[in-house]
Design a protein that fits this description.
Elements (H helix, E strand, L loop, with lengths): L8 H16 L5 E3 L4 H9 L4 E3 L11 H11 L1
Parallel strand pairs: 1-2
Length: 75
């Protein structure tokens, strides 16, 4: 998870390196465990393509996906 992100400048360099490597291989980067807006923004700046975590939505039953998809489709 991202609970302590960014705990250390070295952590940022590791994430940056992983993103660079993945993109050089034409892979998308999805980060898990995003809990704050600051984390989401920093990861966006570092080039992460998508993210998931409590910042976006709390865990829930599979049926809830339908409601989330409808809300997303409505913009």
């Amino acid at each position: 998870g991202m609970q302590q992100f960014p705990a250390d400048p070295v952590d940022l360099k590791i994430v940056e390196g992983i993103v660079t490597l993945a993109h050089s291989l034409d892979l998308a980067v999805t980060v898990e465990g995003v809990e704050t807006g600051a984390q989401a923004e920093q990861l966006r700046v570092l080039g992460c393509d998508t993210a998931q975590g409590w910042y976006y939505a709390r865990p829930g039953p599979p049926e809830r996906l339908h409601d989330l998809a409808l809300a997303d489709a409505k913009g």
